[in-house]
Specification:
heterotrimer, A alpha/beta, B alpha+beta, C mainly alpha, B: Cytochrome-c3 Hydrogenase, chain B, about 45% helix, about 15% strand, globular, C: about 60% helix
Chain lengths: ~230, ~375, ~525
């Protein structure tokens, strides 16, 4: 099949990065062109955005750049100290400025409703300008806090609805302005404040040896076994 | 009769998997729906924070068990993005063949589950019988019929077995004839048409806004496909197009369109497989050993610190995305992803479909829900 | 017409006359539900109105009569003995039901039955050699298998049977699949009877009783041969369909009393559907009765024989309507919305377990069967052989042909229609309830009225007291049949192009790239 060529992709990325930087320079939103490191090594647009400007960026992207598809909202928790394996010395994934990160993946698909009774056959090699599909990755960084809040884009993309529910359910990141927030993957009667993907909840088994050979953890030492009491 | 809430599920013949759909009905008309997911939430994302990149592949097989190869593949591309791995071209061809066969098997499973929903039980057995053809081929490649653990970061586990190409061509030829029979049975059956046409109208822009992709959107008249939009693998070198179907009414595409799209997709996948077998580098009769340069290049074990990788992939049900973050440091930090995030197309589609069902009859619920091809394994992760 | 004596020796009645009164009086006089009791009449001649044999008018007190009586006596003894044995059998099953249930769960229903008489020596799938005594089974089996393998004869039926832990189902000479029903029945007998706690207990228990008893009652006066019936009221058609109509009441009872939303939905759908389809059904039957001039099933059958033409060739539209409405009445696919598995689990049957469910399931198939037999009786001449007059005149061959008992014809015809029922079930999806109701009220009802009018016209103006139309009465039915066939073919073939034209039809794959691209216009 015919595919989007790398020139098309590069040109679209360049244009998008320029426009974003031009529009949002003062707000502290920076866009840059990143490249995938494998396969065809196509480029995508990576935007760093302070959370308070997220909604305006989202609106601009949706209505003026034609980014019509929200793929995924990912939340990541960076605690200041994180003991990775119980008993092993911890390391510091997070800094005071970076405690939580929300990564939003969007794509511009350029799909319009075809006329009734017709179909739209897109020839990828003939796409130009704003019709070229493009990948966006937007990173919203929050400082260390116990109550991470990000404004919700539920009204801008319908697909954000359940993505935000899932992020809150698993990570505890609140979405301001989100209607009807509910638990979607965890049971409905989970205790409030229980968000399993936060790093203080340890994984039960770290490797297969633990899982198969010592399922009930008799061989594990308690966490403070090497401390002098 | 007053409005009442009916709970369909979690154990229900209609549900393709384990989930609940609470439906508020007024007589026979659906007035409101609330889907409830999460019954088989296994915490894959959390588990994979303690597995290295090779160990994650079997977990991804088990995400959507009906379409395991595509999910493992989707993860592998994201992992390769993160690690910066090189993949030989023959391996890409083998991956393409495996993925397209899995797509056919997944669509056959869909048809085999959809027709009993609509009422026709014969097609169920027929589709499973034909799925056996492809499951046998995939078993030759991957070793088992359902969870293959076949792709590797940097290539594939093993090469095409001897005689695979011959068997694949023969089976595809047989399959295409049988597919034509099934099309005849269903397309010429007034009852099937009456059940699926005019039911479940969805427009393309609404679907994209809501996050629905894949065959569901192609049924609305737009041939968008991740395989050409964000290209990966060697799709530009095989013959095959993304099949598309005209939306049939002002309100959008209906169940019949989605059914036709998947039937034509199966034919297109067959074309892709045959053309890939024709043009695979090294020929389809040769068999390279494991870890040979032609099919596998050893990747780096860990990525630099702060690296992340993601990949959009065309799964049988839509666009699936994996995002991996992490990198750097010694064992436990660099070898394991700090965060693995999975985007499942069905997780977003099921609430959308639940909204679409409002206004139709109770008897249309399985017809509409089945036409979107839900698979709960990937929904709940 | 064939001579009386040559005609169906299974006929109780000596005179075959299409006039109503004779048949009636003879039928009334000779019927006796208790077979074998009244072997003698006042005159001393043996009038054996038993189930199987009849006295041929001219023979008195000869070998044939002795043969007849002895066979009858033997049959009665067998029946009584079987009843006694079965009652013991059923009692034992009930007493030991838990043991049997455990046994069946482990081995499967039919395998467990099979293992009652074959020792399980590690062979799960029963091949014929395991029955050999003196331990010859295993070596014989080894020889058979080796020879097969050498000859390259691989049948995967044995593998499938082994995988499914099945027994002799696939063996053609041992009643393939015959014991499945028996095994299922035993399984149902041993399962628990559950009544949901909030269910309306009286109605819940009453519903299956209503359904199954009404169904079995119908079979009582369906004639299986000319004289093989249990009851023959004067207006048996009315009676039959009154009883057919009790079952919807039972269905609604079941749906309502189960205290389950699914059952309620199923019951409501069923009530609506059955009501909607009873009306075209009754109008179609009315047209048959108009055509045949009687409301008695036996008279309808004999009228078809007497006039020389089966009703199917006179009102083919009516036959088709009857078939379709009967499929809807017995709630088979494509009309099985009330028990649609995909949405409603089992619909109005959901809460029933054990033998109650077994009886409901059996009643569905009994009603199917009754519907098929009625179709054979109303439209296809019942127990008369096809082309009886024509072939019957062919000398010895004709004698042999006419000697085939009527019950064989009834069963053959009924099984043919049942095969159509099963075929339709396998091929079609379900129609949605509102579409079913639309079909019933908007299409079938007017069609049945048209059919009724047509039947009136035929009877009043075409029937000349003896045959349908001038001459031998074959022309008009032939014309009607051919015209109907042509219409059918035309209507069924013509549908697709129109349909495709109205609908935005699909394309197989896309048109070549570049036809309509974004950005250019």
């Amino acid at each position: 099949m015919q595919i989007i060529s790398s020139e098309q992709n590069l040109s679209a990325v360049k244009v998008a990065v320029e426009e974003t930087n031009k529009r949002f320079e003062e707000a502290g939103i920076t866009a840059e062109s990143c490249q995938h490191r494998s396969g065809r090594k196509y480029s995508f647009v990576h935007i760093n955005c302070p959370p308070n400007h997220w909604v305006s960026l989202a609106k601009w992207l949706r209505f003026e750049q034609g980014v019509d598809y929200l793929s995924m909202i990912t939340g990541i928790h960076f605690p200041l100290e994180f003991e990775f394996f119980s008993g092993q010395p911890g390391y510091n994934p997070g800094t005071p400025e970076k405690g939580w990160e929300v990564i939003v993946h969007l794509t511009r698909k350029g799909i319009k409703n075809p006329k009734v009774g017709e179909q739209t056959i897109i020839n990828p090699t003939k796409l130009t300008g704003m019709d070229i599909p493009l990948e966006y990755q937007i990173s919203l960084v929050l400082p260390q806090t116990d109550e991470p809040i990000i404004p919700s884009v539920q009204s801008i993309w319908d697909g954000a609805d359940w993505n935000e529910k899932e992020t809150w359910d698993l990570l505890g990141i609140e979405f301001e302005g989100h209607k009807n927030m509910m638990r979607v993957l965890n049971p409905h009667d989970s205790p409030p404040g229980f968000h399993p993907l936060q790093k203080q909840h340890k994984i039960r088994y770290h490797n297969h040896n633990e899982m198969y050979d010592d399922a009930q953890g008799f061989m594990r030492k308690p966490l403070d076994s090497d401390k002098k009491k | 009769m007053a409005e009442m809430w009916i709970t369909m599920g979690p154990q229900h013949p209609m549900t393709h998997g384990l989930w609940t759909l609470r439906v508020k009905v007024d007589g026979e008309t659906v007035v409101d729906t609330v889907p409830e997911l999460g019954y088989i939430h296994r915490g894959v994302e959390k588990i994979c924070e303690a597995r290295n990149f090779t160990q994650i592949t079997p977990y991804c097989d088990r995400l959507c068990y009906a379409s395991a190869m595509t999910w493992a593949q989707s993860y592998i591309y994201a992992a390769e993005d993160m690690l910066g791995a090189e993949v030989p071209e023959r391996a890409e061809y083998i991956r393409l063949i495996a993925v397209e066969m899995q797509r056919i098997a997944s669509h056959l499973m869909w048809l085999g589950a959809y027709c009993p929903d609509v009422g026709n039980l014969t097609v169920f057995v027929w589709c499973l019988r034909d799925r056996e053809l492809f499951l046998d081929l995939l078993q030759e490649l991957g070793g088992s019929r359902m969870h293959y653990n076949f792709p590797r970061v940097g290539g594939v586990k093993r090469d095409l077995p001897i005689g695979f190409a011959v068997r694949a061509r023969a089976k595809i030829e047989m399959f295409l004839k049988r597919l034509h029979e099934y099309e005849m049975l269903l397309d010429e059956s007034t009852i099937f048409l009456v059940r699926t046409q005019g039911v479940g109208a969805c427009k393309a822009e609404d679907m994209i806004n809501a996050g629905v992709t894949g065959p569901n959107v192609r049924a609305a008249g737009v041939n968008y496909d991740v395989r050409w939009a964000h290209p990966y693998s060697v799709y530009d070198q095989v013959d095959g197009v993304a099949s598309v179907e005209k939306a049939s009414s002002n309100e959008g595409s209906d169940c019949y369109d989605r059914y036709r799209v998947r039937m034509t997709e199966m034919i297109e996948s067959c074309n892709m497989i045959i053309s890939a077998l024709d043009s695979i580098p090294g020929g389809d009769e040769t068999h390279y050993n494991k870890k040979d340069e032609m099919i596998y290049i050893k990747p780096p074990i860990r990525a630099p610190a702060g690296q992340n990788g993601f990949h959009h992939f065309e799964d049988s049900r839509g666009e699936s995305t994996f995002y991996l973050a992490g990198g750097g440091g010694k064992k436990g930090r660099g070898e394991f992803p700090y965060r693995m995030s999975i985007r499942s197309p069905m997780f977003i589609t099921i609430p959308y479909v639940a909204k679409t069902m409002i206004g139709y009859k109770v008897a249309d619920i399985p017809a509409i829900m089945g036409s979107f091809d839900p698979c709960i394994g990937e929904t709940d992760r | 017409m064939a001579d009386d004596a040559k005609y169906d020796w299974l006929n109780v009645n000596k005179a075959i006359d299409s006039s109503a009164t004779d048949l009636h009086s003879i039928a009334f006089n000779s019927i006796d539900v208790n077979a074998g009791t009244s072997l003698c009449t006042a005159e001393g001649t043996v009038k054996a109105n038993t189930i199987f044999f009849d006295t041929i008018p001219n023979c008195t007190g000869d070998v044939f009569e002795i043969f007849t009586t002895s066979v009858v006596t033997f049959t009665m003894c067998v029946i009584i003995f079987t009843i006694i044995m079965l009652s013991q059998f059923i009692t034992v099953i009930w007493t030991e039901r838990k043991l049997i249930a455990r046994f069946m769960d482990r081995r499967g229903a039919t395998t467990s039955m099979r293992s009652l008489w074959v020792g399980e020596n590690g062979v799960t799938a029963g091949e014929w050699w395991t029955l050999l005594p003196f331990g010859l089974g295993a070596p014989a089996g080894w020889i058979v298998n080796t020879l097969n393998r050498v000859a390259g004869n691989k049948s995967d039926k044995a593998t499938v049977n082994r995988v499914n832990n099945r027994s002799w189902h696939g063996v053609w000479y041992l009643f393939p699949g015959f014991f499945q029903g028996l095994g299922d029945g035993m399984k149902f007998l041993t399962k628990e009877h559950m009544v949901p706690s909030k269910a309306d207990k009286l109605i819940y228990e009453l519903a299956p009783f209503l359904i199954i008893s009404s169904t079995v009652m119908i079979l009582g006066f369906l004639p299986f041969g000319s004289g093989i019936y249990a009851a023959d009221p004067e207006m048996s058609v009315l009676f039959a369909f009154a009883i057919f109509g009790i079952a919807p009441l039972g269905v609604f009872f079941a749906g309502w009393s189960s205290n389950n939303k699914y059952s309620l939905l199923g019951g409501i759908r069923s009530a609506a559907q059955l009501t909607a389809y009873e009306i075209p059904l009754l109008i179609t039957i009315l047209s048959v009765c108009v055509l045949s001039g009687s409301l008695n099933i036996i008279e309808i059958i004999d009228f078809q024989y007497g006039s020389g033409v089966w009703n199917f060739f006179l009102i083919p539209l009516g036959s088709l309507l009857f078939l379709v409405t009967m499929i809807a009445e017995v709630e088979r696919i494509p009309f099985d919305m009330p028990e649609a598995e995909a949405e409603l689990v089992e619909g109005w049957w959901t809460e029933y377990g054990g033998m109650r469910w077994g009886l409901l399931f059996a009643s569905e198939y009994l009603r199917c069967y009754a519907a098929c037999i009625l179709m054979a009786h109303f439209f296809f001449g019942g127990y008369h052989a096809p082309f009886a007059n024509f072939i019957g005149d062919l000398g010895v061959f004709g004698d042999a042909y006419l000697a085939i008992p009527g019950i064989v014809w009834v069963l053959l015809k009924a099984w043919f229609f049942f095969a159509i029922f099963v075929w339709v079930r396998a091929a079609f999806p379900r129609i949605r309830t509102d579409q079913i109701l639309e079909l019933g009220w908007k299409y079938l009802l007017p069609l049945s009225l048209i059919n009724l009018a047509f039947a009136f016209i035929l009877r009043l103006y075409v029937f000349d007291g003896n045959t349908w139309g001038p001459g031998s009465g074959m022309i008009i039915p032939a014309v009607i049949t051919i015209v109907s066939l042509i219409l059918f073919v035309v209507l069924s073939v013509d549908e697709d192009p129109d349909w495709e034209g109205q609908r935005m039809s699909h394309t197989r794959t896309m048109t070549p790239a570049g036809t309509h691209t974004i950005g250019e216009d």
